[in-house]
């Protein structure tokens, strides 16, 4: 038995070892089977097209996603050469943003391909080389994602950055870019680029009387009209509002004059908006590079000045020249310097007090901006506010005024004088959706309560865009800021509209107040305005009070408060201190 057993041991041993090998192999096979299944599942269910091509170029693998993305079934392509045809080069959006090959390793290479049905699709392609166990290349695997949707939304976003949403014309950003390019090209050939700034006359009136949607419809017709009058290489842009620009890549003065005539002619024919014929006129300012500007901004600025002159003198169009600049109101030439003035603190504020007529209390001050110009001396606001409004500088200007006025308000508070400070807003400010938040930040930073800030908005500013005005005023009012309607009586706002506005008071325009002591009809207007305003539950301030007589008359009419030269001119804070201590004390006006 022992011997037999001895003989058996190697056999058993072998048996056992073989069994172990068998088990390992089975396990390995099982594992292989499993991973093949997993791989198969991945390939089958992947949203990415997975394609394997053998070294001769025939398709070896073509998964369902590939069928879906490209339209050919596996049956049609397996064992055949790849059917995918690359499409043409993609158009690029925006200024010169050519995209170079991003990665030489062919990872996420973006391409455009043609599907079986001919439709072009955008794809992102990654490739991997497949090798057999001897290291020989056995094929290449392509993994392809369909990124058509993503590309489409990218293109939309790009488009939005460079094209105006209402008219689909290039916007200011794209115009500047094209100008830069055209100026560079023209400079090589010693040629001129012509820039036309076109502003519609009295568009605001059209908007106000016919409504905004009709105004918008009119603006949409301007581009096509201009297009008809111009050459294909000319660029038409909308800079905002009723302002358009035309860029002529190569012109001389004579041609430009001709084109200006053509543009005016093209706009002459009435526009039909919902069956209503609308006649408009336009003022055109023209500037040439390099004579009138060596960079896009200065060219735009000079065309803008020329446009102003055309508008003021009703000449239709005006060519920029240094003469034009000299003879145009000085404010036009100041355009370029205003930005620096804000940054360099060349602006300063005067304050004019308002007094309550019954309590004789000083209820607050109005902040009025001035510009200390290094050459021209002090420039009054009438000469640069419109310029600021037209150039987009009104926003930094207004924020500067709010910040400075709040700072001064805080100083008075420290000195024990609680004064509400009023700042003027312009129509453009109301269109700026960021303004309420920015004012809120300035309030927070200043430590002044919102109720100590008042904003004055002219009646006409409210009517430029009533919807925007309503929204902005509601947000500002909700913050606790006091709101007044300025220059009341000079606009045409309806009572119904005023009633819905979240305002606290109105200021009767000085043109009615100044002469009310002698002019009966002015006195009538003031009287009825006071009554009407009180009926709406609002307070009334009369501005432009230049005499004691007017002051007493206002008190008799039950006016709440007054402001004017008789009380005090607008003065710097130091002088206001003297006024508090002397004039006001003498007259019994106190805090
Ligand atoms: P406004 O808001 O109607 O300001 C009152 C103007 O009337 C001030 O002129 C003031 O000096 C003047 N005034 C005050 N009392 C009397 C008076 O008794 N008689 C007469 N005849 N005039 C009086 P100012 O400072 O030259 O400002 C002119 C306009 O400039 C302001 O008219 C306002 O619309 C605008 N403005 C001033 N500062 C700013 C500002 O910071 N932002 C904006 N957007 N506009 C401002
Ligand atoms: Ca005012
Ligand atoms: Ca006013």
Strand content: 15-25%
First CA to last CA: what distance? 127 Å
How many strands, what sense, and barrel or not for the largest sheet? Answer: 8 strands, mixed, barrel
Count of DSSP strands: 22
Q: pLDDT average, as an integer?
A: 88
The general outline is elongated
Strand order of the largest sheet: 14-15-17-18-19-20-21-22
Q: Which molecules are bound besides the chains?
A: ligand C2E, calcium ion
Radius of gyration: 37 Å
* Poorly predicted tracts of residues: 89-105
Number of helices: 22
Provide the structure class.
Answer: alpha/beta
Share in helix: 40-55%
Description of the molecule:
The protein is of the alpha/beta class. The chain has an eight-stranded mixed β-barrel with strand order 14-15-17-18-19-20-21-22, surrounded by four helices. Strands 2-1-6-5-4-3 form a six-stranded antiparallel sheet. Strand 4 and strand 5 form a beta hairpin. Helix 7 packs across helix 8. About 3% of the residues have low confidence. The structure holds ligand C2E and calcium ion (2 copies). The site of one calcium ion has 4 residues, from loops.
Question: Topology of this protein?
Answer:
Elements: H1 2-45, E1 49-53, E2 59-62, H2 64-70, H3 74-77, E3 85-86, E4 109-114, E5 120-131, E6 137-146, H4 148-162, H5 172-188, E7 193-200, H6 203-210, H7 212-229, E8 235-240, E9 243-248, H8 253-268, E10 271-273, E11 276-278, E12 282-289, H9 296-313, E13 317-319, H10 322-327, H11 330-343, E14 347-356, E15 362-373, E16 377-379, H12 385-391, H13 394-414, E17 420-425, H14 427-430, H15 435-446, E18 453-458, H16 459-464, H17 466-478, E19 482-488, H18 495-500, E20 505-508, H19 510-513, H20 520-535, E21 539-543, H21 548-556, E22 561-563, H22 573-587
Parallel strand pairs: 12-13, 15-17, 17-18, 18-19, 19-20, 20-21, 21-22
Antiparallel strand pairs: 1-2, 1-6, 3-4, 4-5, 5-6, 7-9, 7-12, 8-9, 10-11, 14-15, 14-22, 15-16
Helix pairs in contact: 6-7, 7-8, 9-11, 13-15
The structure holds ligand C2E and calcium ion (CA) (2 copies).
């Amino acid at each position: 038995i022992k011997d037999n057993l001895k003989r058996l041991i190697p056999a058993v041993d072998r048996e056992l070892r073989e069994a172990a090998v068998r088990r390992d192999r089975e396990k390995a096979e099982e594992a292989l089977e499993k991973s093949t299944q997993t791989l198969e599942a991945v390939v089958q269910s992947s949203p990415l097209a997975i394609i394997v091509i053998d070294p001769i170029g025939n398709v070896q693998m073509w998964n369902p996603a590939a069928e879906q993305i490209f339209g050919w079934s596996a049956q049609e392509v397996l064992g055949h050469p790849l059917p995918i045809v690359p499409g043409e080069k993609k158009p690029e959006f925006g200024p010169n943003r050519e995209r170079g090959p991003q990665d030489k390793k062919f990872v996420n290479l973006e391409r455009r391909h043609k599907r079986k049905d001919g439709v072009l699709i955008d794809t992102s392609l990654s490739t991997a080389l497949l090798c057999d166990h001897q290291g020989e290349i056995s094929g290449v695997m392509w993994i392809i994602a369909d990124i058509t949707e993503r590309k489409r939304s990218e293109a939309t976003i790009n488009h939005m950055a460079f094209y105006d949403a209402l008219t689909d014309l290039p916007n200011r950003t794209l115009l500047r870019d094209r100008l830069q390019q055209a100026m560079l090209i023209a400079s090589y050939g010693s040629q001129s680029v012509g820039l036309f700034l076109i502003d519609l006359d009295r568009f605001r009136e059209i908007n106000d009387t016919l409504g905004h949607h009709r105004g918008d419809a009119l603006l949409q017709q301007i581009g096509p009209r201009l297009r008809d009058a111009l050459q294909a290489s000319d660029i038409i842009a909308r800079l905002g509002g009723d302002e358009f620009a035309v860029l002529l890549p190569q012109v001389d003065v004579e041609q430009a004059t001709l084109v200006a005539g053509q543009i005016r002619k093209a706009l002459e024919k009435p526009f039909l908006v919902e069956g209503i014929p609308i006649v408009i006129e336009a003022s055109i300012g023209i500037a040439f590079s390099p004579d009138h500007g060596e960079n896009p901004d200065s060219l735009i600025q000079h065309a803008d000045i020329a446009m102003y002159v055309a508008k003021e003198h009703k000449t239709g169009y005006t060519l920029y020249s240094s003469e034009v600049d000299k003879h145009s109101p000085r404010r036009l030439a100041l355009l370029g310097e205003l930005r620096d003035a804000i940054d360099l603190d060349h602006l300063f504020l005067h304050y004019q007090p308002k007094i309550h007529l019954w309590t004789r209390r000083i209820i607050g001050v109005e902040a009025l901006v001035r510009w200390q110009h290094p050459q021209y001396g002090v420039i009054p606001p009438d000469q640069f506010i419109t310029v600021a409004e037209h150039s987009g500088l009104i926003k930094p200007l207004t924020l500067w005024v709010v910040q400075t006025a709040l700072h001064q308000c805080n100083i008075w508070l420290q000195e024990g004088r609680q004064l509400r400070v009023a700042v003027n807003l312009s129509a453009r400010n109301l269109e700026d959706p960021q303004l309420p938040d920015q004012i809120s930040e300035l309030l927070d930073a200043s430590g002044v309560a919102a109720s100590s800030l008042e904003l004055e908005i002219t009646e006409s500013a409210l009517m430029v865009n009533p919807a925007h005005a309503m929204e902005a005023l509601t947000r500002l009012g909700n913050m606790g800021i006091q709101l007044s309607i300025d220059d009341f009586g000079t606009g045409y706002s309806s009572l119904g509209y005023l009633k819905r506005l979240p305002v606290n008071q109105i200021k009767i325009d000085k043109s009615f107040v100044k002469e009310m002591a002698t002019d009966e009809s002015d006195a009538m207007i003031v009287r009825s305005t006071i009554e009407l305003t009180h009926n709406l539950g609002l307070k009334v301030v009369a501005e432009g009070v230049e005499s004691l007589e007017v002051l007493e008359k206002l008190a008799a009419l039950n006016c709440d408060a007054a402001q004017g030269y008789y009380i005090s001119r607008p003065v710097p804070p130091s002088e206001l201190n003297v006024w508090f201590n002397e004039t006001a004390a003498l007259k019994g006006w106190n805090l």
